[in-house]
UniProtKB/TrEMBL annotation:
<dbReference type="InterPro" id="IPR045206">
    <property type="entry name" value="Maestro_heat-like_prot"/>
</dbReference>
<feature type="domain" description="Maestro/Maestro-like HEAT-repeats">
    <location>
        <begin position="64"/>
        <end position="310"/>
    </location>
</feature>
<protein>
    <submittedName>
        <fullName>MROH1 protein</fullName>
    </submittedName>
</protein>
<dbReference type="GO" id="GO:0005737">
    <property type="term" value="C:cytoplasm"/>
</dbReference>
<dbReference type="InterPro" id="IPR016024">
    <property type="entry name" value="ARM-type_fold"/>
</dbReference>
<dbReference type="InterPro" id="IPR055406">
    <property type="entry name" value="HEAT_Maestro"/>
</dbReference>
<dbReference type="InterPro" id="IPR011989">
    <property type="entry name" value="ARM-like"/>
</dbReference>
<dbReference type="Pfam" id="PF23227">
    <property type="entry name" value="HEAT_MROH2B_C"/>
</dbReference>
Amino acid sequence: TRDRCVCRAMARHAGPRLPLIVKDLIPMLSSVLDNQRVTATAFLAELLNSNVVKDLILLETMMDNMTGRQKDSCMSVRMLALRGLGNISSGAPEKVRKHGAKLLASMVNGMDDKDDPHNLVALEAMSSLSKLLDHVEERDIQSMLLHIAIRIRPFFDSEQPDLRKSSIVLFGNLTKFSEGNCEVFFEQILNGLVTLLLHLQDPKPEVVKACKFALRMCGPSMGCEGLCDMFLNHLREDRSLHYGEFMNNVCKHLMQSYPEMLNRLISTNLFYFKSSWVDIRAAAPMFIGFLVLHVDEDHCQQVDLDQLISCE
């Protein structure tokens, strides 16, 4: 917070001196002292959030140095470097278009950080990537789309609400680029659908809001007009949701459009019978009940009754 206030004040009042200040700070990014690297990275990351950076000759140097900090031994430096790269979307969005592939690769590397026990680097990478997606060229994201979707999926059920929210919002944002990989990404939507629908009962309102957004974004790619309309009309941020009635209608559309998916949808729901969140634990058997209610007799044979009966 202090770095942000100082940086904003300097961006507003110290414009002509900023190139010299930045030039003096950049060597500190390689300091042997962690606290100096953290302070310098935090300051430059916040400076990249201001449109004053458009006028800095050293902008590309700052960007390169932020990228170079990805292998820093200090986790806070790695996290702040990703924040700085994501902030370029606010400070100099045209640079995101120019360096899209490089910036996206940095975010993917951040999500794959091996020395990140609490997933703070991954969290920053997901949040920053969501900001960058508004400005990248479609060709730059296409080759990474599937990897990112698969990588973030486990975070949907994280015990940390921030990770659940950021990963789900990012997934929703990724659907904007799914047209060229429609069949491949549709599979990812199906893989995440049960989880997103169940987390509409998440104990954290910000996660519920993220699920509503992601489902609205997924709707047009699902090939079911009725389902798409339901997501758009019933999952608006300002609208309360009658969950049981909503799920009854969702399952009706699912079984009309994808009856062959019944067993797969049931199996995913069974995983949540032992969820640590009571409302999600209660929603899963209701979800299965509505699926079975609306499936036709021909596809009802898919249901593994022994699996259902034995599930506690």
